[in-house]
Amino acid sequence: MSRPTPDGANAADAVLGRSSAAELGDGPGATLPRRSHRVSFPGGNGFTLAGIVDMPVAPLAGGPIVGTPIVVFSHCFTCNKDLKAIVRIGRGLAARGVTVLRFDMTGLGNSEGDFSRTNFTTNIADLKAAIAFAHKELGPVTGLLGHSFGGAASLAYSGEVGGVPNSIRGVAALAAPSETQHLSSLMLRRNPDIEKVGQGQVEIGGRSWTIRSEMLEDFRRHRLEDWIARISIPMLIVHSPTDETVGFDHALRILQLASSRRTGHAAPPVSLVALDGADHLLAENPQDLSYVAGLLAAFFWRYRD
């Protein structure tokens, strides 16, 4: 059975006063020209971070379009902004009228720093820095998007005590875990030396990474569940029931936590989309990326102001 195609471009057409245009190669609903450019900015841990802005442009003038949703996109553990899924989704969102900043966290991709000395705390600090940069250079950030551990960081920031900036109206998590302790356990199973001698090598994605015990201690310290339970903005969860890296039970747990009643406050709108047959990195079926981009575009247009 084929999946329906959510069309975020419909919202863009309404706001921009445009009729439907020919597709530009990024899948159903992708109607706007787009362009990408590299940026750099101070991160949250004293290092310069690298990023790419994917943005829709006016079909004739070629300039930026005012009033689009602006989203900050965080990548997965040991990944970077140039991962195929991150690139395709970022560009797909831009073609559907959403401006996206995708960036490399400290020590990854083209960003400065030592990855082995980072952790979940530093990830959140880098996310905050990316939001501040986007707010200054692109306009008020209206949404957060994260894949896997980047989704966890986006959820954590969204549930911080004191709340997120008023401009942020929605958060979306792709294949995100419901807690951070599982990653610590996974790293130790792959190399017990991390705890025995303080550090060790772990192969992830065909590459060897230095993992330090301090990183795992930080993973164990956080209570992501508490942050999720405090989120007060609309949430979209996208997860595959056949994800072999982060099981579907994590998505169900996030849904349960985010949908719980709060004292004196109603729970925010929360949606879970089961991405049947997809793998964790959304690498096996190219159509998954177009489908997800359409879902996300519709979500971020709906909750942009």
Can I get a quick summary?
The chain is of the alpha/beta class. Helix content is 35%, strand content 20%.
How would you explain this protein's 3D organization?
35% of the residues lie in helices and 20% in strands. The chain is an alpha/beta fold and 305 residues long. The strands form 2 sheets. It has an 8-stranded mixed β-sheet, with helices on both faces. The protein has a two-stranded antiparallel ribbon with strand order 7-8. Strand 9 (235-239), helix 9 (248-259) and strand 10 form a beta-alpha-beta unit. The longest helix has 18 residues, at 120-137. It is globular, with a radius of gyration of 19 Å. Residues 1-28 have low confidence and may be disordered.
Helix content: 25-40%
Structural class: alpha/beta
Q: Taking Cα atoms only, what radius of gyration do you get, to the nearest Å?
A: 19 Å
Count every beta strand, where a strand is a DSSP E run of 2 or more residues. Answer: 10
What share of the residues does DSSP label as strand, in percent?
15-25%
Report on the biggest sheet. 8 strands, mixed
CATH superfamily of the largest domain: Alpha/Beta hydrolase fold, catalytic domain
Number of helices: 10
Which descriptor suits the 3D outline? globular
The CATH architecture name of the largest domain reads: 3-Layer(aba) Sandwich
The CATH topology assignment of the largest domain is Rossmann fold
Order of neighbouring strands in the sheet with most strands = 1-2-4-3-5-6-9-10
How many structural domains are formed by the residues?
Answer: 2
Amino-to-carboxy terminus distance: 35 Å
The CATH C-level class name of the largest domain: Alpha Beta
Mean pLDDT: 89
Run of helices and strands = HEEEHEHEHEHHEEHHEHEH
The parts where pLDDT drops under 50 for at least 5 residues are 1-28
